[in-house]
Amino acid sequence: MMRPLIQRFGLLFLAAYLAAGPAALAVEPGEILADSKLEARAREISTGLRCLVCQNQSIDDSNAELARDLRLVVRERLVKGDTNDQIFDFVAARYGDFVLLRPPFNAKTILLWGGPAGVFVIGLIGVFIYFRRRGTDPVEAAPLTADEERRLNAVLDKETES
């Protein structure tokens, strides 16, 4: 009973490993720095930079040529002694704040940061207005004409007789 369970989980882990494999293989062996601490910093920085070709991946996960070039720039700057912030500033100065997966909060990115909250508030106001108007009857009934009132009385008289 236990052996089939292990085999199933083994297959699950194998499938997860294979699914994550392409992302893990984006950094090519020739790019890896000999100093493991610098390499760890390079990977950390690379996960914070957007691939300008793929746009939904970090340069650490992307196989695009531009992502590879950016990974090399990051490693060159680390070897020169730049801090993480200096590298982010260097790349953002060349490609704009769009390249940062966590862009700074400033005048240029106010819509990026405040946009979702603004849309949510506008939606709440819209829902509030909708339900507020829905509760009131916007159309008043017109008074009955003399003919309509006579026919209504005739129907009501018939029902009371039955």
What does this structure look like?
It is a single chain. The protein folds into two domains: 103 residues, Helicase, Ruva Protein, domain 3 (Orthogonal Bundle), CATH 1.10.8; 29 residues. About 3% of the residues have low confidence. 64% of the residues lie in helices and 0% in strands. The protein contains six helices and no strands. It is an all-alpha fold and 162 residues long.
Q: What is the tally of helical segments? A: 6
Give the fraction of residues assigned to helices: 55-70%
In this structure, how is the largest beta sheet organized? none
| Uncertain spans | 21-25
Query: What is the CATH superfamily of the largest domain?
Result: Cytochrome C biogenesis protein
CATH topology of the largest domain: Helicase, Ruva Protein, domain 3
The total of beta strands comes to 0
Query: What is the CA-CA span between the terminal residues?
Result: 77 Å
Write a concise synopsis of the structure shown.
By secondary structure, the chain is mainly α. Helices cover 64% and strands 0% of the residues. It contains 6 helices and no strands.
Question: Could you give the topology of this structure?
Answer:
Layout: H1 2-24, H2 36-46, H3 65-80, H4 84-95, H5 110-135, H6 146-161
Observed structural traits:
162 residues; mainly alpha; Helicase, Ruva Protein, domain 3; 2 domains; 6 helices; rod-shaped
